[in-house]
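pasting for ref
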Amino acid sequence: MKRKEYLGGERLFPLSLLFKKKTDNIFFREDASFEGYKIFYTFGAHSSLLAIIDNLQIKSGQFVLLPSYLCESILISFKQRSVQYQFYSVDINLRPDFDDIDKKLNVGACAILFIDYMGCSHYDTVKQHQSKYLQRNISIIQDAVQSVLLDNKLLYGDYVINSFRKTTGVEGGILLSKKPMSITYAKGSNFQFLFFKRSGQFFRFLHINFPSIFPTWFLLCFRKAESFYYKSKIYKLPSFNRFFLSRIDFCALHEVHLTINSLLRKKWASFQPSHLNQNNLGTLGFFMLTQKRDVIVKALAEEAIYCPIHWKLPKEVSKEIFISSWQLSEHALTVPFAFPLNISIKLIEERVNRILDSSSKIQL
């Protein structure tokens, strides 16, 4: 019996890029630039967020406004810097509630973080309110981590963060700043994280190719790596990682993700929040809402298709106040786009059909 090919889960490290020439990609070419922004390269989104918090120089009594629908790991950076935060509402279609934000502006807010869910920029709506934030000296942090590319026309933050880890399997982040900024990086690299992460990627490679090797090995390594990732130090992008990232054609990768998104939308567009219901999203996966989320996750896992959950909310997000966010958390499903970096259109169509066939027996 032919072994099922894995889709989703932690990406393998793309060692094949070792023999590839450097590409002219927008992030790492010599003349890389984003108009009005200074570029910094960090170890990832966590280091970038720590650098932003340090640069904000938040005073006693001030706090940062965060969306009520977010990954709990975002809070770690603020807790490590002893920075207070409050939540604002996000509706069921993943749009910020600007009325709720306005109510909280006059009581000590010094910055607002917006998440571009699945790479969908809030440029149009944030720009309508940006003048009032500027008048109050409130900084805007744009979390664009779920975007494969950064489009200058869709950037609205005083600070913008993006991460390469989820889309490429290589740790690294880019931080853009309109504000005067300098970063004091920790010496060396996060060796403990890198050791366990590479070990996990190696054991997962062995498991994929030799199924008799239990997944316990790579799962343990990934968990151990995660425990070392969220250190309070700010790490620079390692030269080794930069070498590999500079050989990835991010524009081609973006086109692959656009194609996958378009193919899945033909079948599942009605299950997407309206904010995401568009063809031009090159993102991490296909985000949808369904009452049978857990049933579908289990059924797809049996077909070796592993869907992440975006997100399990932290307990600090009140179920009574932020009802829409909890509805999102309980019904959200992300179909992964973690296909090989050099995949052909023919293989994309085959794998998308496999996803659709695997879920066809389930009534969404």
